[in-house]
Amino acid sequence: MSLDxxxxxxxxxxxxxxxxxxSKEGFDLITSxxxxxxxxxxxxxxEDIVVDKNQSLENDVEDELEEYEPPNKPxxxxxxxxxxxxTCKQMLFIKHIxxxxxxxxxxxxxxxSTERIEMxxxxxxxxPINEDMMPVDMVELATDSYKDxxxxxxxxxxMPDAVQTGFGELRGIPVALAVMDFEFLGGSMGSVxxxxxxxxxxxxxxxxxxxxxxxxxxxxxxxxxxLSLMQMAKISSALRVHQLINKLMCISxxxxxxxxGVTASFGMLGDLIIAEPGAYIAFAGKRVIEQIYxxxxxxxxxxxxxxxxxxxxxxxxxxxxxxxxxxxxxxLYLSAPCKLxxxxxxxxxDPESKDKQFYxxxxxxxxxxx
Length: 370
Description:
Strand content: 5-15%
Order of helices and strands: HHHEEHEHEEHEHEHEHHEHH
Number of domains: 3
Low-confidence stretches: 19-44, 64-78, 340-346, 351-370
GO cellular component, one term: chloroplast stroma
InterPro entries: AcCoA_carboxyl_beta (IPR034733), Acetyl_CoA_COase_Trfase_b_su (IPR000438), ClpP/crotonase-like_dom_sf (IPR029045), COA_CT_N (IPR011762)
Helix content: 40-55%
CATH class of the largest domain: Alpha Beta
Pathway: Lipid metabolism; malonyl-CoA biosynthesis; malonyl-CoA from acetyl-CoA: step 1/1
GO molecular function: acetyl-CoA carboxylase activity; ATP binding; carboxyl- or carbamoyltransferase activity; zinc ion binding
CATH architecture of the largest domain: Alpha-Beta Complex
EC number: 2.1.3.15
């Protein structure tokens, strides 16, 4: 027997044994399910069994992929040990970053609304309002995607909508504060956001308190159509009563990004308009302008520094000193000679407050409950 004949005989023996083993394996896999026993009998060859086995495995993989659900997003957005600074290209240990400001280049990272409240308001003085106000799909579009998106964003952001409103004290001065949160649907302004801010301004007008509006938004919420655009006029009307008729103060703080309908309404209606360094401030965003007009837009054109140079905002204040600067502005406002009446009281805990008695007398049983 030649060497070639020996090799052919060995290969044939190996192939027959492997084919028999695979057929037994396929037989065991299929006959393990009693429902498929009849299916096995109908097969005319081992090759058919092996083909059907491979097809069943592929179908199982496809079913598993369809049923797969990705893990939930972390309950605390931005949680982690490190942050990458896009300006100075450095990795920063998050516990060493004060108020989410890069110590090397002063780049201001985004902050959650709760973090901003803790930054501005004195400890144990925050009193939120309208926390249970929930958004609904009033437009009732031909899809349920908006309802599903709301549920996902509420779980992800840990809040019912894109703004938190309430009352508190800033270094002893009672204020009404609204803080938008970009993590919820890009901080978009829907019916709930507009209603909560309007109610806050109306209560602040009644109690003669200054209003601070911290903006971080991509604009009006397109899923709510004209109802979201209506919030621009509603908030602006409430601010007119607050500022022009009652001579009360409103401060707008523009953070990155502040665009669209928020920029076109209450974002630019403050008596003082303050921006954080490097904040993105615009009506139409860079990408929208480039796509519509086919022109290239310089990124620095819509930054706070350039907006300040063109007179659209009053101050650019770093986050680390923002709280103290606002307090000093309030002191200047209290002593302004053009004001015809006392506009808002100092803290009732301040023994040196000349307006303490007025503040105490202004609260009676007939006033609305917060």
